[in-house]
Design goal:
Bound molecules: zinc ion
Helix content: 40-55%
Number of domains: 2
Strand content: 15-25%
Structural class: alpha+beta
Order of helices and strands: EEEEEHHHHEEEH
Number of strands: 8
Shape: elongated
Radius of gyration: 22 Å
Number of helices: 5
Length: about 190
């Protein structure tokens, strides 16, 4: 793995970064460019500024990238749903029955809450274990991807072979390349 940090001097005008013109993961000829965007958190002429860095991928790695959804988001959702439903039923049954009009629905609410918490935790555990098992196939950077549950708060972009995130206060963009050769070439192009 190879890490490169590209300094960002002006958040309103983030640097244009250039990738070697071949697959970022394996170095084969470029087939597509994956759009990658990170929010700079500042505005220019009333519009939010984005740091834009399209990443080249070969056909094979593009397919792999698409399949990664099936080992992260999909298992999280399915396991979460199944475990949530399983937890919902006993939780609803053991919840004290409401006596007044206001508390009549309590077992249902309680069951739903327990189901949601168990589903979120269970789904995350399943996703985490799957990532560990599949890292040899999809690359070690798979482990650096935020878990689905955290991805809503996370300001990083990930694609097969590459992980990009801002450093503290967005003073620079830190890129981690799975492929050392591409990482070194990228460094020469950008620093
Ligand atoms: Zn490739």
């Amino acid at each position: 793995m190879h890490t490169v940090e590209v300094p960002i001097k002006d958040a309103k005008n983030p640097p244009k970064i250039i990738f070697p013109d071949r697959c970022v993961n394996c170095g084969k000829p470029k087939h597509v460019v994956m759009p990658m965007k990170l929010i700079m958190g500042v505005e220019k002429r009333g519009q939010g500024v984005l740091m834009d860095f399209p990443v080249p991928l070969c056909a094979e790695c593009e397919k792999k990238e698409q399949r990664i959804t099936y080992v992260t988001l999909v298992p999280f959702l399915i396991a979460g749903l199944v475990l949530g439903v399983i937890a919902f039923i006993p939780a609803m049954l053991i919840a004290p029955e409401g006596t007044s009009q206001q508390t009549l629905g309590f077992p249902f609410v309680f069951g739903g809450l327990v189901g949601m918490v168990v589903g979120a935790i269970g789904g995350t555990v399943v996703e985490f274990v799957l990532k560990l098992l599949l890292a040899p196939v999809y690359g070690q950077l798979l482990l650096k991807r935020p878990l689905t549950i955290l991805s809503f708060f996370n300001d990083s972009e990930n694609v097969i072979g590459l992980s990009a995130r801002f450093t503290d206060k967005k003073k620079s963009l830190k890129l981690i390349f799975e492929n050392d050769v591409i990482g070194k070439e990228f460094k020469q192009l950008n620093l």
